Write a sequence for this structure.
């Protein structure tokens, strides 16, 4: 099946620094990518939807200036957590869709962010 | 988004079948029923999806009620590697909205 790769798998950063997470669709062109956040023992919560070549759409309560999303090509979307704080520590997951209706979504393996 | 309800947790013995239920009484005619599972510290993994007819693949079977208000994911022989959180999600061309899912424990 299709593969979505996230990098890095885990990252530790200091408070106040920025961290970039990459999401790549390896064998298909992803017109739409989604970014989720998952806190321990909780389900995935959608943060934003990114479409190639246009601005991301953020869910209510998600700060777009803090979580910068770029979807510059059909195979790459990036999430940058700016001025990270300990409360931003979480498991971040991306998913990609090929644009064909009613097919499955493909998820990355997730990125564990720890802000110290 | 149409809502689904699942039991919080279930247990199964290894090598026995597992039936994971999902209720979706507000499903619309165009909603597909998707199942994903998430192993610890990993992203969700696609299991199966269907619209009206029962579906089978190498991982599982999906039994859909005739009125489509409920469905059951069937793992024919549970293994220890099937221990995960299983999510039942309704979707039609939009982002996937995850509920709490069912945490499946498989006992050796």
């Amino acid at each position: 099946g299709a593969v979505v790769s996230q990098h890095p798998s885990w990252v530790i950063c200091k408070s106040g620094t920025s961290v970039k997470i990459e999401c790549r669709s390896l064998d298909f062109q992803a017109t739409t990518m989604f970014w989720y956040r998952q806190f321990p023992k909780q389900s995935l919560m959608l943060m934003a939807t990114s479409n190639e070549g246009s601005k991301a759409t953020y869910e209510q309560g998600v700060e777009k200036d803090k979580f910068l999303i770029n979807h510059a090509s059909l195979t790459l979307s990036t999430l940058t957590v700016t001025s990270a704080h300990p409360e931003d520590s979480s498991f971040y997951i991306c998913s990609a869709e090929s644009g064909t209706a009613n097919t499955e979504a493909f998820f990355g393996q997730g990125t564990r962010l720890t802000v110290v | 988004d149409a809502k689904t309800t699942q039991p919080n947790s279930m247990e199964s013995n290894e090598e026995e079948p597992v039936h994971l239920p999902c209720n979706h009484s507000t499903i619309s005619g165009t909603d597909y029923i998707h199942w994903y599972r998430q192993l610890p510290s990993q992203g969700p993994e696609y299991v199966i999806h269907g619209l009206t007819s029962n579906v089978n693949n190498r991982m599982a079977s999906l039994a859909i009620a005739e009125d489509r208000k409920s469905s059951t994911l069937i793992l024919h022989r549970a293994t220890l590697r099937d221990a995960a959180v299983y999510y039942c999600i309704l979707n039609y061309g939009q982002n996937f909205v995850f509920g709490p899912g069912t945490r499946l424990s498989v006992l050796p």
